[in-house]
Structure formats: C-alpha cells, structure tokens
Write a structure and sequence with these properties.
Helix content is 31%, strand content 36%. The chain is an alpha+beta fold and 169 residues long.
Length: 169
C-alpha cells in the first residue's frame, strides 16, 4: 500500500468508494452522488487529502479540512472513507496515522476533530485506537435510514498539548 497526496486522476476511484451505500450511509453525504460532486468535495485549497493506493487503485482517502478563521487555524476537521472491499486491512488506520503525522509535524495543528454516527462502532473503535476521544453527543442530530440518530463529537490533540490541556483544566 502506498499513501500519497490526492491527484485529479483519482476522482473515478473516489466516486466508486462513495457509490457504496455502506460508505455513504456512514458519512454526511447522500447516496448516489455524481462524480462531479464527489470531486468537488476534495478540491478546495483549504483541504489536505491523502489517498491509499494498492496496485494503482485508490482504496481510501483521509481529508483534513483546514480553516482560515484566525483564531481556529490550529484546528482541522477530518473525514475518511475506505472502499468496502478493503475494510479490516489496516488502510483506515494507516491513513489516519499519516494524516495525524502531517497535522502534528507539518501543518502546525493542535486539534483534529470529527463527527461520527454513534452506531458506527467500527469507526469509533478505529478513532479511539489512533488517539481520538469522545467529547460529547449531538442527540438525534442526523437523519439516517429513515430515523434520527446521535452523532459523537471526537477530537485528538497533538501529544505535546494533551498534557498542557489537562493541567489547565
């Protein structure tokens, strides 16, 4: 597996990943999105996207969503998706670890945050394994498969600042 930066030529593979209901239902996206829409999700200058490639095919991505807000430049949101045929093979963990390496050592980020469906237990477990902690629950905040469900708010602080954050409380 090779992890690299997103290229324009990756849009077809990203579209395939998001064409699976099992992927789209666990994101903030609707099913059946066009390839143009999918490409637009990851093309902004305020984003940093890495992909995992196996034998020339993109099988997953992780995106850090940076902000231009002066007081929040130390924070980023994160999104990830892995092709269903590649689940359970360590691709998500590898992508997250490299994104966090970039956040800590190159992008000068202190805080990386995400929202995850509370019923997506495998994703929650993965996030916890790479250092994310649950900060709260947004009750009945999203509509999925005909019902309202909770979203968990999770974050991961740069290791240097974790100690300082605990001391300042």
């Amino acid at each position: 597996m090779k992890i690299r930066h997103l290229e324009d030529t990756d849009s077809k593979d990203l579209h395939e990943i998001y064409s699976f209901t099992s992927v789209s239902e666990n994101t903030s996206q609707l099913p059946f999105l066009s390839s143009t829409h999918i490409s637009g999700l990851f093309s902004g200058s305020d984003q940093y996207t890495l992909v995992a490639e196996i034998e020339g095919k993109v099988v997953g991505h992780v995106t850090l969503f940076l902000t231009s807000k002066v007081r929040d430049r130390h924070c980023a949101g994160i999104a990830i998706a892995v092709h269903p045929n590649s689940h359970g093979k360590g691709i998500g963990k590898s992508l997250l670890n490299e994104a966090l390496n970039q956040a800590d050592n190159w992008l000068n980020l202190v805080r990386v945050e995400l929202e995850v469906h509370s019923d997506n237990l495998s994703a929650v477990s993965l996030y916890e394994k790479v250092g994310f902690e649950t900060e709260g629950t947004k009750r009945l905040s999203t509509f999925k498969n005909g019902r309202y469900i909770d979203m968990l708010l999770m974050s991961r602080l740069h290791p240097h600042y974790q100690v300082n954050a605990e001391q300042s409380v």
